[in-house]
Amino acid sequence: EKIDQHVKLASVWSAKAATSNKDYWASLQMAVSDKALFTADHSGAVVALDIQSGQKQWSVDLDLPISGGLGYGADMLVFGTIEGQVYALNAANGTQLWTSTVSSEVLSSPSVNSQIVVAQSIDNRLYAFDAKNGEELWQHDAGAPILSVRGNSSSMILNNMVIAAFDNGKLIAFNAG
Question: Span 94-116, mean pLDDT?
Answer without folding.
Answer: 95
